[in-house]
Each structure stands twice: as structure tokens, then as C-alpha cells.
Amino acid sequence: MLVPLLFCLIYLLFCAININGSVWFDESFSAYLIRGNFTDILSLTAADVHPPFFYFCLKIWSLIFGTSVISLRFMSVFFGGVSIILVFHLVKRWFNLKAATISAALLSISPLLIRYGQEMRMYTLALTIVIGATYVLELALESPNKKRYWVLYAILLALGIWTHYFVVAAWIAHLIYLIFVRKQNPLKKPLLNTYLLAIIIFAAWTPFLFQQIQNVQKGFWIPAISALTPVSYLTETFFFLDSENTTSWLVPVFLGIVIISGTLIYRILKQSKLRQPFYALLIFIIVPPLVLMILSLPPFAPVFVNRYILYASSFIWVLIGAMIALYRSKKPVLKITLSLLTLTAAIIGIVNVETRTPEENIESIISMVNQLADKKEPILTNNIWNYYSAVFYSTDEHPVYTANDWIDYQYGSEAPVKKYQYHIISDLKDFQKQHQTFWYIADAQNSDSVKSPIENYRIVNEIFDGDYLAIELERE
């Protein structure tokens, strides 16, 4: 048990490097949503595009550990660590201790797992559920008469979809593995009863699922897939870079990993004893992105995003670890080369993760305003999207607001604001009467000709930082 705990510690250290960076919209939405009780969370997620289980967990976590950025993000670190431990035991059951050790070691330094361990979203929780379900499935297959394993597997199947809908791609991979590798008939007991139980557990959420699917199909932010989508999926897994930015010496590193991995897979699959678990890994790696790409084709709206299937990209590192441990040859050139290339990719990817430019660095502009603002001087944000991110940093000394008149309430993501009305100004004129001066934060566009956005107020101070502009306004 000490071996996987050591890798968890390594993972924790890498996550800690950048865990206090600025929150962005998705994270601030998570933090904002859990302001209410569990009934509120249930009703508000029904209006959004994700199921509620992650938010329930985050709410419980916040009640125990608080609501600071480090506290809330550490839940993702925790589940990332749990996934490393589960991978260790799964691979040990499939292969041996050496394979388990190398696979867990590589997973602990995989860039995407570190990246999403630094974010208060559901991706590492989904990963933990998928790996846990895979382990329980193996136990159930080895002991088919022990109903508790099948019941637990059914619960995990349902919880996975209660966490993120695209975990269903992992369950499709499981089903393919069961039918074609383990030669199981899903229409017979105990599998049939297991799937029926999972459906029953999830059934209560089904009406909201269909409504959310309709909302996404009306148009979403995700771009269409292209011929480069599979390549970017792999380059992001190894380097935390899309295919267009994987240039120069990264190209031979990438091609070396892909070609050598393909060669070793072919040779290892000739060994009958290893064939079954290696087929399992390949299915778990290939099927989920393939499912998402198919679902992204017309007439459906695009849905392919790497982080949605973090569990599949994580299994890539597990596969490489198993190959390095299990490939036997009198000339271990391929194994040594793959090890060096993989470590090189991991190091480059970690550097890219830790030095990345924040998607929304609103914490920086808020910090600057707090240093310059007078005591009790409030901050007003120009729209709901900036409000969501900025309000996370609201303090009693410098509270963050936005105006109700600036919110359309036409998107599901605006439902929590409408429900909680936290620092939402219902009467802007009344707010102006109460404050001689206040700060106004907006997107830094047309910054060459900044004018006071509020009538009868003049600009007395201004700050530009990245994508944001902050101006101090004083009543004339």
C-alpha cells in the first residue's frame, strides 16, 4: 500500500504547484451552485447541462473543509489520488506488481490528470468511478455468485452517469469488453439484473437528461471535430498541447511513442496469457473517444472535449506502463526508448500545465483593485459571466456585484443567480446613491477610448490586466 501512496504524494506535489491560480467560469459556477442546500443543487443542475452528483460531493466537501479555492480544488486532487491507488490494484490484479507500480507511477505524472486535479470540476471524480467500477467488475466476473459485487457495480454505473453523462462511453467500452473479450451474455443473469438495477437507480433523473440533451443540441460552445481531433486528443494527453502546437522536436517524440507503442502492443498480444487484459485496456482507450466523435457528427451538435473522457486518456498511461513492465526481449531497446520518450513527454506536459496562461485570470485584476480601493469600496462587474468568476473573490471589505438589469436569464447556467440573488443589484440607481465611488470591471475591449459606463460618474483610476479592465468611478 505504501507504493501507490508514494505516487499519490508525487501527484499531490505537482497539483499543488498551480492549485491557487485564478478560477474560471466553470469552476466559479461550481462554487456558486453549492451556496444553496441539496434541494437547490438538485433543481438548479436540472436547468444546466450536467448531472448533480459532483455538486452534491462538492457541497459535502465544502461543509467539512471550507470554500476557499484550495479547499474546493483539493477534492479533485483527492479523487485523482484515489484513482492512482485504484489503478495500482487493478493492474496488479490484471498483470503483476511491477506493471502496477510503473502504471501508477506514470499516471501520477500524467499532465491531464494533474491539470484537472487543479480544477473544481467533476473529471477526476468520474475517473475514480470508472476505474473503481472496472475493478469491481473484475471481482464480479471472478466471483459471479457473489451478488454484492454486481450490486456495487450497478451502483457505480449509475453514479458515473449521475457525475457526467459521457461516462456512458466508458460503460459502452465495458459492455464491448464483456461481450467480445470475456464472452458474457448481457441478456442473461447476473449482467441483465445488474444493468436493470443501474437503470432503476438513474431513472429519476431521466426527464432532466432528455431536456438537457435538447438544450445542448440547440447549440453549444464546442467546435466541430476535424481530421486533427484524434491527433490533438493524443498530443494533449502527452504534452498538454493541441496538434497545431505540437511542433519541432515534439513531433519525433510523439511519433516515437505512437510507433513503438503500436509495435509493442502487436508483439505482446501474441502472448495468450496477456491478451485479455491488454484487449481490455485497448477497448477502454479507443471506444470512449470514438463514441464522442460519432456523437459529434451531424445531425448532432459537437460534444468532443478531451476532459470529458479523462478516464480514457488516463488509461493510455496505464497501457504504456504495462507494456514497459511486461515486454520481454533480449534487446530491450524498444522498451528503454519508450520509457525515455514517455518520461520526456510527461515532463514537457507538466511544464505546460504549470506554466499555462489562465483561461480567465480575473483573480489578478481583483487583487489589484483590492490593493487600490478605499475601505468598503465595492466592485461592480459588467455582465453575469464576469460576475460569476469575480464573485468568488468577493470580500466584506470589497464585495462584488452585478446588476439584475444586465442579466437575460435565458441560459440554464444563469438559474443559480436568479435563485440565490447573491450580491445582485435590483435597483442600480439606489446602488449609486449609496456609493460615492466604486470599481467597475469589464472585458478589456476598445481600451483606447475608455469612457465612463455609468452616467454622472467620472473615471478617477483605471487598470488593465490581460483580458480585463478595471476603472474606479466617482460621482460627479
Descriptive account of the structure:
The chain is an alpha/beta fold. The protein has 2 domains: 2-354, no CATH class; 362-475. The protein contains 21 helices and 6 strands. It has helices spanning 2-17, 25-33, 38-46, 53-65, 69-94, 97-108, 111-117, 123-142, 147-163, 168-181, 191-202, 206-217, 229-239, 250-268, 272-295, 310-326, 333-354, 362-372, 384-391, 415-420, 428-434, and strands at residues 379-381, 400-403, 424-425, 437-443, 457-465, 468-475. It has a 6-stranded mixed sheet. The longest helix has 26 residues, at 69-94. The radius of gyration is 25 Å and the shape is globular. 41% of the residues are buried.
Topology at a glance:
Elements: H1 2-17, H2 25-33, H3 38-46, H4 53-65, H5 69-94, H6 97-108, H7 111-117, H8 123-142, H9 147-163, H10 168-181, H11 191-202, H12 206-217, H13 229-239, H14 250-268, H15 272-295, H16 310-326, H17 333-354, H18 362-372, E1 379-381, H19 384-391, E2 400-403, H20 415-420, E3 424-425, H21 428-434, E4 437-443, E5 457-465, E6 468-475
Parallel strand pairs: 1-2, 1-4, 2-3
Antiparallel strand pairs: 4-6, 5-6
Helix pairs in contact: 1-5, 1-6, 2-19, 5-6, 5-7, 5-8, 6-16, 7-17, 8-9, 9-11, 10-15, 13-17, 14-17, 15-16
